[in-house]
């Protein structure tokens, strides 16, 4: 990148500084974990496969991004802000569409670990959990993105 060049990044983020308190960004993983645990309890997935399954996952906050930019040293931050989108306002935001979104992101990892033959049952359970959460008002209501404009230092 040329000196003084700009780069715009839009990345998945979180509002809270404490990653353990921001339920919205953990919700999809929580639902998936509950569905897989249910399959284990029904004997459809081997417990050893669940015990050996680990996906490190971290969503940055605005401060995390700013700190990383400073630490890396090649850019300055010209602009940074959060955008929160109310997912309930999205017209296609049905429990089924949310389950399909989860599936589209992680299916290859899940099928490699637990087997292709169990995929339909896992995502039927994911959909069932999301439907139930929706009835109870426990579903995710927003997604957060961080928009940052970086300027290349000379």
Automatic annotation (TrEMBL):
This is SAM dependent carboxyl methyltransferase. GO terms for biological process: methylation. It comes from Corchorus olitorius. It comes from the Eukaryota. Transmembrane segments: none annotated. The keyword Methyltransferase applies. One of its GO terms (molecular function) is metal ion binding. The lineage of its organism: Eukaryota, Viridiplantae, Streptophyta, Embryophyta, Tracheophyta. Keywords: Magnesium, Metal-binding, Methyltransferase, Transferase. InterPro entries: MeTrfase_7, MeTrfase_capping, SAM-dependent_MTases_sf. Gene3D superfamilies: Methyltransferase, alpha-helical capping domain, Vaccinia Virus protein VP39.
């Amino acid at each position: 990148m040329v000196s003084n060049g700009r780069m715009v990044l839009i990345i998945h983020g979180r509002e809270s500084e404490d990653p353990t308190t921001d339920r919205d960004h953990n919700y999809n993983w929580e639902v998936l974990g509950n569905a897989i645990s249910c399959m284990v309890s029904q004997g459809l997935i081997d417990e050893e496969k669940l015990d050996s399954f680990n996906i490190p996952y971290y969503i940055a906050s605005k401060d995390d991004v700013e700190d990383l930019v400073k630490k890396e040293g090649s850019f300055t931050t010209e602009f940074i802000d959060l955008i929160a989108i109310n997912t309930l306002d999205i017209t296609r935001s049905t429990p089924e569409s949310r389950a399909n979104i989860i599936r589209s992101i992680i299916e290859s990892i899940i099928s490699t670990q637990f087997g292709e033959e169990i995929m339909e049952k896992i995502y039927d359970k994911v959909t069932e959990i999301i439907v139930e959460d929706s009835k109870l008002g426990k579903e995710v209501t927003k997604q957060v993105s961080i928009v940052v404009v970086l300027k290349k230092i000379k």
